[in-house]
Structure formats: C-alpha cells, structure tokens
Amino acid sequence: MLKFVKHHLAGIDNVDVYPIISLILFGSVFIIILVKTFLADKKVMKELSNIPLNDDLSNPQKPLI
After folding, report:
1. What are the φ and ψ backbone dihedral angles of 60, each rounded to 5 degrees?
2. Has residue 65 been placed in a domain?
3. 61 falls within a domain
4. Phi, psi of 61 (to 5 degrees)
C-alpha cells in the first residue's frame, strides 16, 4: 500500500511542502479554537452547558447568544 502511494506522490513536484502546510493549518486552527474557548463569556458558556438539562419548552426559539 505504501509503495502505491509513494509511486504516485513521487510524480508531484514539491510534495514535501504539503505536510508542513497541513501541520501549520491544523496548529493554527487548534490555537484559534483554544484562545476562543478561554476568552469566551462565562455566562454564555454556562447557559450553553445547561441546554441538555433545560426542560423549558415554552420558548423553543429563544436565542442562545
């Protein structure tokens, strides 16, 4: 299986750049989500965490944020 993949990837110019780009993209998205999580409003997070426990069916269209 690996020989099959290596054979096709060997024909692509600068194929060694793709893992670096994917690592940078993954790392930046992870850091952005981590920062947004720590900077989020605690009141909104508490309200969002209680959604599964909320039995209030009188207003289902209530905006969360």
Report:
1. -70, -15
2. no
3. no
4. -90, 10
Identify the CA nearest to 62 among candidates 33, 50, 39.
Answer: 50
| Residues constituting the chain | 65
Whether the CB-CB separation of 12 and 28 falls below 8 Å is answered with no
CB 43 within 8 A of CB 64: no
Local structure of 21: helix, strand or coil: helix
Q: What is the pLDDT of residue 63?
A: 62
Q: Are 22 and 35 in contact (CB under 8 A)?
A: no
Write down the pTM of the prediction: 0.58
Domain extent at residue 47: 15-51
Q: Is 58 helix (H, G, I), strand (E, B) or coil?
A: coil
**In whole angstroms, what is the distance from residue 52 CA to residue 64 CA?**
13
Helix (H, G, I), strand (E, B) or coil at 10: coil
